[in-house]
Amino acid sequence: MSIHSTKQEVARRRTFAIISHPDAGKTTLTEKILLFAGAIQIAGSVKARKASRHAASDWMEIEKQRGISVASSVMQMEYQDCVINLLDTPGHQDFSEDTYRVLTAVDAALMVIDAANGVEPQTIRLLEVCRARNTPIITFINKLDREVKPPLDLIQEVESHLRMDVVPFSWPIGMGKQFAGVFDVQLDRMRLFQSGRDRRPEQEDQTIEGLNNPELEQKFGQAFLQAREEIELLQAASPAFDHEAFLAGRQTPVFFGSAINNFGVQEVLEALVKYAPAPGPRQALERTVNPDEGKFTGVVFKVQANMDPAHRDRVAFVRVSSGQFNRGMRLKVSRNQKEIRPNNVVSFLSQRRELVEEAFAGDVIGIPNHGILHLGDVLTEGEVLHFTGLPFFAPELFQAVEVKDPLRTKQLRTGLTQLGEEGAIQVFRPVAAGATLLLGAVGQLQFEVVIHRLKTEYGVEARLMPARFTLARWVTADDPKVLAKFLDANAAQIAYDVVEAPAYLAGSPAQLRVVQDRYPDVQFHTMREHG
Ligand code: G4P
Q1: Residue 274 marked as a ligand binder
Q2: 84, 276, 369, 383: which one has the fewest Cβ atoms less than 10 Å from its Cβ?
Q3: Membrane-crossing residues (predicted)?
């Protein structure tokens, strides 16, 4: 049992995700954070589990070890009396939908930028999701041990993409082979760079106090003089760090470092503990849910097929929103009022899957089930609640799907419905008579994975065929009659998704514009929120 009250437990939770473009250093930084928090002893264990981002065949191979990927997708550790939940986001960009949903379950994000490349496309999309939710962001600019972009340019790039004020907490002195370390602007001292350590350092970094200390100029010459000029420039130009502005998503503290060399990692971890918010209230349609209230509530933000494909069991990842979860308690699913009594719920303490004894707001628990829990489901002790905000994005790629053996049509439907519920792919049922089911994806790899899983998990040989659609928009209208009329008049272009939400399918952006002009009272959405 916990020695803390629920309120104290909530106050010491920090739940965050790392967002980055592939190769910026997310895996390396994750590993180093675990190392500094004492959750692992030697770096290498996360790296070994990193899913391939390149080929479907590699992904399938990784899939065979799905238990491992389940276990490493949430990592819990303790640091300075805080309980840190680090939620992994899939590395492959084809799974970015999954990433967006993971971002709904965190209270802060750590953005990693490769200093040689600056802000890259995939980071921008993830940032938009964070911005839409005003998620506070801490920025880590990585790989200063390489020849990289000038730091002032990087800062400017971050500022223009994030559309928030950037407050450098540290500033690099030199780069690449000449990388000497960073100047800690807050503490007014320089930390000297040391390279290549994969164990938690026993000793503190070497430091030199004071921006005006002559020793710095003596030791680092021109590189230091330039850095000092930049620091002074920034101190005059950028605002001081304001905690409220950070929490509101209007300011981001920036750190420079080199994850592979453990350099700058501790500062980021300390900033997370010190500045990132504890879990806050969540807005349900019915009422505001406070994290420290007595009763348990939680939301399923991710569903992942589990180890044994033959049994089709899945793990629902539930972010606790309030109260305390205890093993064996009865929970009610708000969607259909069904009661579940999960016994073998797992927690994710430092990557080992362990049976959970208790969990508080901000924690993630994994509930194995056979399909009873869907994405977006709310679990409570009895109250009916609906949380909004779990996003589904309009697919950008479409394929029609057909079963090779017509006798297995039913299995195809079952398989696709379940994979759709899991969020692996979006499934659309066109209204037009005789039309085959349509699959919608954000990335090409999703199709391959679905065909593979249909075969191995449902015994269905399915084949993909080109679809005549290239984009979809969910449609709504304030007046139900307007919507009904629209759906009727455009039946050949309408399809329903797994939750029976209607979507308009178009062959080209021009076609979409024409209907948008013709039906000004119908709203076309690129994103659907569950709830
Ligand atoms: P990701 O999860 O964001 O995709 O990135 P990951 O951590 O795998 O890092 C991508 C590459 O960048 C890796 O090299 C990693 O070693 C390297 N890297 C990470 N941090 C730093 C750093 O601070 N400095 C430098 N110079 N490199 C860094 P790789 O060649 O793809 O893999 P590996 O052969 O090192 O395992």
Answers
A1: no
A2: 383
A3: none
